[in-house]
Amino acid sequence: MEFSIRGIGIIKEADIKMDGLTVIAGSNNSGKTTVGRALYAVTSAVEDLAEKQQQDQAKAVFYRIRKIVEPFDGWLSRSRFLSRKEEVSDDLISEVIGINHIYNPGKRDYYIDLLFRLCESMEKGSFIELLIDNLRDVVGNSESAIRNEWEDHKEKIQKECLGAREFVESFQQQTKKEFAYKMIEETLAVEFSNQAQSYITVDEGGISKLEFKNSHKEFYEICISENRILEDKSSFTEGYYDRAYFVDDPYIIEDRITPSYLAAPYVDEKHVQIRIMSHRDKMRRMMRVSDVDRGISETIYREQEIQNVMKKIDAIVPGKVSKGVYQSPTGRKLKVENLATGSKVFSIIKKILTSGDLTDKTLLILDEPESHLHPSWINQLAEVIVLLVKECNMTVLLTTHSPNFLLAVDALMRKYEIREKCHFYQTEFEENNQIKYVEKTDCLDNIYADFAASFAEMNALRKKYMNVEE
After folding, report:
1. How far apart are CA 370 and CA 429, in angstroms?
2. Membrane-spanning regions, if any (predicted)?
3. What are phi and psi of 2, to 5 degrees?
4. Other C-beta atoms within 10 Å of 441: how many?
5. Cα torsion angle, 196, 199, 201, 203, sign
6. d(CA 224, CA 3)
7. What phi and psi, each to the nearest 5 degrees, are found at residue 210?
């Protein structure tokens, strides 16, 4: 597999092989995170694509229904009160009341049917009669007020109904590819704060590209101009990975979940209604939920599959995190805020292993995970990562500027005989401060030399002043 980038962030060009463990090394501000962020954005956008499309359409139709009946919310609230006493007689009124401002993502077809019946009732003028009939015992002298309100809003409501019918017809013609493009576009906007393209590419009016392919198939080629996808120049068949996890901050373990209504909204002419969650919010949500009950057979299978990895992690963090609490095997509970930072790193990986749906198409992106670790724990983290590739067949994209971490991965890939699945890249600056990626898989000497240069500089300085002191 190969992931190619042109003109994203500060990256001029990069062709990254993804066949097991891919390591990107380089200095700060050299675009290492950009690769992971771009790959995560596309992968996350098209995860469970058919399900997302149905949920999106359900939400869109739900809000159309709410918009049509909005002028009568006050009267429907009275009917809602009666419905609790089982006095509402008409099915249509009770169904409109029943959706109760909270949509169910699994009810797309039901919402479409309800919308059509509601529109038919509005167009015939029978809805108002049904509403008055249901409020007969409490409406009193307000019947004329309801009729006047109907006359005031009748034309607008019927236009809403016409628009709603056309809307449903339009999204029923929507293709998977169209929906995928809009999901990718918006997820890139969330991950890159509406600035996925490099300023140089944008200034030159150029096109940026994201491509994923193997020797037999191109999965997608996304062309971007002014941070919008050019659908006529792009292609999309499917995403390759089933699930992606992007870990770049151990402190997400202690953050509260961002409510879905605060996540980035997305509504445009392609009707994408889903709230896009950033990679950090998705990780926050995972860290706060309880472990899934998978049943005995599934649990046994999963434990056998990851047992060697879990032994390594348990040696450092024997407990588990759930709902913001770390619980040790002895039952002692500790708020995750009080967990050591290094332990947070291992706890996040452990949570992914126990809660995630891991397959050979799972992508794990770790952005400088060694930053908070002692060298001995860096070595153990490297072993965990190598075992994830060897025994779980996961794909791992790793960025680092630690010579200790690079050396540990270099040694352990040889110990566990996965060298043929490993690829190494170094970032290099070009003109205009743009970055290109150079593969160093066959010889890591240049990467080690780059890391060693800073150490040698300070070591020489130290010796100089030690001589002065003597």
Report:
1. 24
2. none
3. -140, 130
4. 14
5. positive
6. 16
7. -130, 125
Query: Which backbone phi and psi does 186 adopt, to 5 degrees?
Result: -75, -35
Residues in the chain: 470
* Average pLDDT over every residue of 203-227: 88
pTM for the model: 0.85
Q: What is the Cα–Cα distance from 391 to 22, expressed in whole angstroms?
A: 16
The secondary structure of residue 290, as a DSSP letter, is P
Token code pair at residue 14: 């990069």
Three-state DSSP at 458 gives helix
How far is residue 398's CA from residue 368's CA, in Å, rounded to a whole number?
7
Cα 296-297-301 angle, rounded to 5 deg: 115
**How far is 139 from 263, CA to CA, in rounded Å?**
40
User: What is the DSSP track for 384-407?
Assistant: HHHHHHHHH--EEEEEE--HHHHH
How confident is the model over 304-357, as pLDDT tens digits?
668 888 889 999 999 888 878 888 888 899 988 999 999 999 999 988 888 766
Q: Which helix (H) or strand (E) holds 380?
A: helix 375-392
**Residue 237 CB neighbour total at 10 angstroms:** 15
| Topology, domain 2-47+177-439 | Rossmann fold (3.40.50)
What does 77-113 look like in DSSP terms, one character per residue? HHHHHHHTTT----HHHHHHHHTTT---TT-HHHHHH
- pLDDT, residue 185, reads 94
Q: Using an 8 Å Cβ cutoff, are 79 and 89 in contact?
A: no
pLDDT in tens, 417-458: 999 999 999 998 887 778 889 999 999 999 999 999 988 999
